[in-house]
Amino acid sequence: MRRFHLVIVFLFTATTSFAQFGVSFNQSSLPFVGLSYEVNNKFLPELRIGTDNYFDDTSLEVVVSYIFKRNETINAYAGVGGRIQILEGLVVPVGLNIYPFEKKSFGFQMELAPILRESSLLRGSWGIRYRF
């Protein structure tokens, strides 16, 4: 039930304000696909679904990031969220979205995210992002 509440809060937040939908794929030892809404060019709530595993081992993350540095090419962000299922815990992502092309829809992403739990883990990842 807790998972359901997190998804509802994510969707309600994204649809009640000006937002831009996006998808991403990040590669690491814990890879994931993300569905996000960029809200008012400042907030980036994202639902992340673990990949490269069995369906029974699929993890979910809900993260809300604040874009604290924005220019034409680079967005720097930091956030907080939670992870459930495998390696449950608090997630604190810090990263960069880089849009090097003339059309700013497609870009690259680098992120460092500690997963804080009894035995904490530091996840580094890189990936691609597309904004609709």
What this model shows, in words?
About 10% of the residues lie in helices and about 60% in strands. Strands 1, 2, 3, 4, 5, 6, 7, 8 and 9 form a 9-stranded antiparallel beta sheet that branches. The chain has a single domain, classed as Porin, CATH 2.40.160. Strand 2 and strand 3 form a beta hairpin. The protein has one helix at about 1-15, and strands spanning about 20-25, 30-40, 45-50, 60-70, 75-85, 90, 95-100, 105-115, 120-130. It is mostly beta strands. Keywords: Signal. This is Secreted protein. It comes from Adhaeribacter pallidiroseus.
The largest sheet, given as strand count, sense and whether it forms a barrel, is: 9 strands, antiparallel
**Coarse structural class:** mainly beta
Total of DSSP H or I helical runs spanning 4+ residues? 1
| Morphology call | globular
* Beta-strand content: over 45%
Q: What is Rg?
A: 14 Å
Distance between the termini: 31 Å
The CATH architecture can be given as Beta Barrel
Q: Can you count the beta strands? A: 9
Which CATH class applies here? Mainly Beta
Number of domains: 1
The unreliable regions are 13-17
Oligomer: single chain
Order of helices and strands: HEEEEEEEEE
Helix content: 10-25%
CATH fold label? Porin
Q: Would you tell me the overall average pLDDT?
A: 87
